[in-house]
Protein backbone atom coordinates (compact mmCIF):
# COMPACT_ATOMS: atom_id res chain seq x y z
CA UNK A 1 0.00 0.00 0.00
CA UNK A 2 1.27 3.49 -0.80
CA UNK A 3 2.09 5.56 2.27
CA UNK A 4 -0.06 8.64 2.76
CA UNK A 5 1.82 10.03 5.78
CA UNK A 6 5.41 11.12 5.40
CA UNK A 7 8.04 9.41 7.53
CA UNK A 8 9.52 11.83 10.11
CA UNK A 9 13.23 12.54 9.71
CA UNK A 10 14.01 11.13 13.16
CA UNK A 11 12.28 7.80 12.42
CA UNK A 12 14.23 5.00 10.74
CA UNK A 13 12.76 3.16 7.77
CA UNK A 14 12.62 -0.01 9.88
CA UNK A 15 10.68 1.69 12.67
CA UNK A 16 8.34 3.41 10.18
CA UNK A 17 7.53 0.08 8.52
CA UNK A 18 6.69 -1.36 11.95
CA UNK A 19 4.52 1.66 12.73
CA UNK A 20 2.56 1.21 9.50
CA UNK A 21 2.02 -2.47 10.22
CA UNK A 22 0.96 -1.88 13.83
CA UNK A 23 -1.43 0.93 12.84
CA UNK A 24 -2.99 -1.41 10.28
CA UNK A 25 -3.34 -4.05 12.99
CA UNK A 26 -5.30 -1.62 15.17
CA UNK A 27 -7.59 -0.81 12.27
CA UNK A 28 -8.08 -4.52 11.55
CA UNK A 29 -9.09 -5.21 15.15
CA UNK A 30 -11.76 -2.53 14.75
CA UNK A 31 -12.75 -3.90 11.32
CA UNK A 32 -13.28 -7.36 12.81
CA UNK A 33 -15.38 -5.87 15.63
CA UNK A 34 -12.99 -6.89 18.40
CA UNK A 35 -12.41 -3.49 20.01
CA UNK A 36 -13.30 -2.53 23.57
CA UNK A 37 -13.93 1.17 22.77
CA UNK A 38 -10.70 3.06 23.70
CA UNK A 39 -9.41 0.30 25.98
CA UNK A 40 -7.04 -2.66 25.51
CA UNK A 41 -3.73 -2.54 23.69
CA UNK A 42 -1.66 -3.98 20.90
CA UNK A 43 2.05 -3.58 21.55
CA UNK A 44 5.00 -4.22 19.27
CA UNK A 45 8.66 -4.38 20.20
CA UNK A 46 11.02 -2.07 18.31
CA UNK A 47 13.61 -4.33 16.66
CA UNK A 48 16.65 -2.15 17.33
CA UNK A 49 15.75 -1.46 20.98
CA UNK A 50 14.79 -4.57 22.92
CA UNK A 51 13.22 -2.61 25.77
CA UNK A 52 11.20 -0.12 23.69
CA UNK A 53 7.73 -0.68 22.29
CA UNK A 54 5.03 0.95 20.23
CA UNK A 55 1.53 1.19 21.65
CA UNK A 56 -1.70 3.13 21.14
CA UNK A 57 -2.23 6.62 22.59
CA UNK A 58 -4.77 6.27 25.38
CA UNK A 59 -8.11 7.85 24.52
CA UNK A 60 -8.03 7.36 20.76
CA UNK A 61 -10.36 5.04 18.92
CA UNK A 62 -8.52 2.29 17.07
CA UNK A 63 -9.62 3.87 13.78
CA UNK A 64 -7.88 7.12 14.80
CA UNK A 65 -4.48 5.48 15.16
CA UNK A 66 -1.87 6.28 12.52
CA UNK A 67 1.79 5.33 12.12
CA UNK A 68 2.75 8.82 13.33
CA UNK A 69 0.71 9.01 16.53
CA UNK A 70 1.70 5.63 17.97
CA UNK A 71 3.61 6.10 21.22
CA UNK A 72 7.09 4.83 21.92
CA UNK A 73 7.20 3.53 25.50
CA UNK A 74 9.41 1.57 27.87
CA UNK A 75 8.48 -1.72 29.51
CA UNK A 76 6.36 0.12 32.08
CA UNK A 77 4.42 2.08 29.46
CA UNK A 78 6.17 5.43 30.09
CA UNK A 79 6.51 7.71 27.05
CA UNK A 80 9.98 7.98 25.52
CA UNK A 81 9.18 10.60 22.85
CA UNK A 82 7.32 13.89 22.94
CA UNK A 83 3.67 13.45 22.07
CA UNK A 84 0.46 15.39 22.74
CA UNK A 85 -1.07 12.07 23.76
CA UNK A 86 -0.74 10.21 27.03
CA UNK A 87 0.31 6.63 27.52
CA UNK A 88 -1.58 4.28 29.81
CA UNK A 89 1.03 2.62 32.05
CA UNK A 90 -1.64 0.73 33.98
CA UNK A 91 -2.90 -0.90 30.80
CA UNK A 92 0.67 -1.83 29.83
CA UNK A 93 1.21 -3.89 32.99
CA UNK A 94 0.25 -7.09 31.18
CA UNK A 95 2.09 -6.24 27.97
CA UNK A 96 5.22 -5.04 29.72
CA UNK A 97 5.43 -8.18 31.83
CA UNK A 98 5.22 -10.46 28.79
CA UNK A 99 7.63 -8.43 26.66
CA UNK A 100 10.20 -8.18 29.45
CA UNK A 101 10.19 -11.93 30.11
CA UNK A 102 9.69 -13.44 26.64
CA UNK A 103 12.27 -12.53 24.00
CA UNK A 104 10.39 -14.71 21.50
CA UNK A 105 7.28 -12.50 21.75
CA UNK A 106 7.51 -9.22 19.83
CA UNK A 107 3.80 -8.42 19.64
CA UNK A 108 1.02 -8.80 22.22
CA UNK A 109 -2.71 -8.31 21.57
CA UNK A 110 -5.29 -8.17 24.37
CA UNK A 111 -9.04 -8.40 23.67
CA UNK A 112 -12.34 -8.77 25.53
CA UNK A 113 -14.72 -10.03 22.84
CA UNK A 114 -17.99 -11.54 24.05
CA UNK A 115 -17.03 -15.04 22.93
CA UNK A 116 -13.52 -14.96 24.39
CA UNK A 117 -14.77 -13.47 27.67
CA UNK A 118 -17.45 -16.18 27.86
CA UNK A 119 -14.77 -18.88 27.51
CA UNK A 120 -12.67 -17.10 30.17
CA UNK A 121 -15.69 -17.23 32.48
CA UNK A 122 -16.10 -21.02 32.23
CA UNK A 123 -14.03 -23.41 34.36
CA UNK A 124 -13.45 -25.71 31.39
CA UNK A 125 -11.78 -22.94 29.38
CA UNK A 126 -11.06 -23.77 25.75
CA UNK A 127 -12.02 -27.20 24.52
CA UNK A 128 -10.21 -28.65 21.52
CA UNK A 129 -12.98 -30.47 19.69
CA UNK A 130 -13.37 -28.30 16.60
CA UNK A 131 -11.08 -27.30 13.75
CA UNK A 132 -9.89 -24.09 15.41
CA UNK A 133 -9.94 -25.27 19.01
CA UNK A 134 -7.76 -28.24 18.08
CA UNK A 135 -5.11 -25.84 16.78
CA UNK A 136 -4.82 -24.38 20.30
CA UNK A 137 -4.15 -27.72 22.01
CA UNK A 138 -1.24 -27.39 24.46
CA UNK A 139 -0.83 -23.68 23.71
CA UNK A 140 -3.12 -22.10 26.32
CA UNK A 141 -2.24 -20.91 29.82
CA UNK A 142 -4.80 -19.75 32.40
CA UNK A 143 -4.43 -16.97 34.96
CA UNK A 144 -6.81 -16.53 37.90
CA UNK A 145 -8.62 -13.20 38.12
CA UNK A 146 -7.09 -10.79 40.63
CA UNK A 147 -9.07 -7.69 39.69
CA UNK A 148 -8.03 -5.00 37.22
CA UNK A 149 -4.47 -5.70 36.09
CA UNK A 150 -2.65 -2.77 37.66
CA UNK A 151 -0.18 -3.99 40.21
CA UNK A 152 3.49 -4.94 39.99
CA UNK A 153 3.15 -7.96 42.26
CA UNK A 154 0.78 -9.72 39.83
CA UNK A 155 3.27 -9.72 36.97
CA UNK A 156 5.24 -12.78 38.05
CA UNK A 157 2.06 -14.75 38.65
CA UNK A 158 0.82 -13.88 35.17
CA UNK A 159 4.12 -14.98 33.68
CA UNK A 160 4.01 -18.25 35.62
CA UNK A 161 0.50 -18.84 34.25
CA UNK A 162 1.69 -18.16 30.70
CA UNK A 163 4.81 -20.31 30.98
CA UNK A 164 6.22 -21.05 27.52
CA UNK A 165 2.83 -20.74 25.82
CA UNK A 166 1.57 -17.99 23.49
CA UNK A 167 -2.05 -17.71 24.65
CA UNK A 168 -3.00 -16.50 28.12
CA UNK A 169 -6.63 -16.74 29.18
CA UNK A 170 -7.27 -14.16 31.89
CA UNK A 171 -9.99 -15.86 33.89
CA UNK A 172 -13.24 -13.86 34.20
CA UNK A 173 -11.63 -11.20 31.98
CA UNK A 174 -10.32 -11.78 28.45
CA UNK A 175 -7.27 -13.00 26.59
CA UNK A 176 -3.74 -12.03 25.58
CA UNK A 177 -1.87 -13.59 22.67
CA UNK A 178 1.74 -13.03 21.63
CA UNK A 179 3.98 -14.13 18.80
CA UNK A 180 7.27 -13.20 17.15
CA UNK A 181 5.75 -10.55 14.89
CA UNK A 182 2.52 -8.64 14.26
CA UNK A 183 1.36 -10.87 11.41
CA UNK A 184 1.68 -14.11 13.38
CA UNK A 185 0.06 -12.53 16.42
CA UNK A 186 -2.97 -11.37 14.46
CA UNK A 187 -3.38 -14.79 12.87
CA UNK A 188 -3.14 -16.46 16.29
CA UNK A 189 -5.77 -14.09 17.68
CA UNK A 190 -8.03 -14.82 14.69
CA UNK A 191 -7.70 -18.55 15.37
CA UNK A 192 -8.45 -18.05 19.08
CA UNK A 193 -11.48 -15.90 18.27
CA UNK A 194 -12.85 -18.44 15.79
CA UNK A 195 -12.36 -21.23 18.35
CA UNK A 196 -14.26 -19.20 20.94
CA UNK A 197 -17.09 -18.40 18.53
CA UNK A 198 -17.56 -22.04 17.55
CA UNK A 199 -17.33 -23.29 21.13
CA UNK A 200 -19.94 -20.78 22.32
CA UNK A 201 -22.24 -21.59 19.38
CA UNK A 202 -21.89 -25.35 19.87
CA UNK A 203 -22.57 -24.94 23.58
CA UNK A 204 -25.88 -23.27 22.80
CA UNK A 205 -27.06 -26.28 20.78
CA UNK A 206 -28.63 -29.36 22.23
CA UNK A 207 -27.15 -32.78 21.74
CA UNK A 208 -23.88 -34.51 22.48
CA UNK A 209 -20.58 -33.14 21.19
CA UNK A 210 -18.36 -35.21 18.93
CA UNK A 211 -15.11 -35.26 20.91
CA UNK A 212 -11.67 -35.44 19.35
CA UNK A 213 -8.90 -37.64 20.66
CA UNK A 214 -6.06 -35.67 22.22
CA UNK A 215 -3.61 -37.17 19.72
CA UNK A 216 -5.64 -35.69 16.86
CA UNK A 217 -5.81 -32.27 18.50
CA UNK A 218 -2.07 -32.39 19.19
CA UNK A 219 -1.34 -33.28 15.59
CA UNK A 220 -3.53 -30.41 14.41
CA UNK A 221 -1.73 -27.97 16.72
CA UNK A 222 1.68 -29.22 15.61
CA UNK A 223 0.82 -28.90 11.92
CA UNK A 224 -0.46 -25.38 12.44
CA UNK A 225 2.77 -24.43 14.18
CA UNK A 226 4.78 -25.84 11.30
CA UNK A 227 2.70 -23.80 8.87
CA UNK A 228 3.03 -20.57 10.87
CA UNK A 229 6.83 -20.92 10.96
CA UNK A 230 6.63 -19.89 7.31
CA UNK A 231 6.33 -16.12 7.75
CA UNK A 232 4.94 -15.87 4.23
CA UNK A 233 1.72 -17.56 5.38
CA UNK A 234 1.00 -15.02 8.12
CA UNK A 235 2.04 -12.16 5.84
CA UNK A 236 -0.39 -13.29 3.15
CA UNK A 237 -3.21 -13.44 5.68
CA UNK A 238 -2.37 -10.02 7.15
CA UNK A 239 -2.01 -8.30 3.79
CA UNK A 240 -5.21 -9.87 2.46
CA UNK A 241 -7.14 -8.61 5.48
CA UNK A 242 -5.72 -5.08 5.00
CA UNK A 243 -6.80 -5.15 1.35
CA UNK A 244 -10.27 -6.37 2.28
CA UNK A 245 -10.64 -3.71 4.96
CA UNK A 246 -9.51 -0.87 2.72
CA UNK A 247 -11.61 -2.05 -0.22
CA UNK A 248 -14.67 -1.78 2.01
CA UNK A 249 -13.80 1.25 4.16
CA UNK A 250 -11.24 3.19 2.12
CA UNK A 251 -7.67 4.10 3.13
CA UNK A 252 -6.88 3.61 6.79
CA UNK A 253 -5.38 7.10 7.19
TrEMBL record:
Pfam families xref list: Aldolase_II
InterPro entries reported for this sequence: Aldolase-II_Adducin_sf, Aldolase_II/adducin_N, Aldolase_II/adducin_N_sf
All copies of domain Class II aldolase/adducin N-terminal, residue ranges: 20-200
Chain coiled-coil ranges: none
Top-level taxon of the source organism: Bacteria
PANTHER family tied to this protein: ADDUCIN, PROTEIN HU-LI TAI SHAO
Family in the record: Belongs to the aldolase class II family.
NCBIfam families from the UniProt entry: PRK07044.1 (NF005451)
Record protein name field: Class II aldolase/adducin family protein
UniProt organism field: Oceanobacter antarcticus
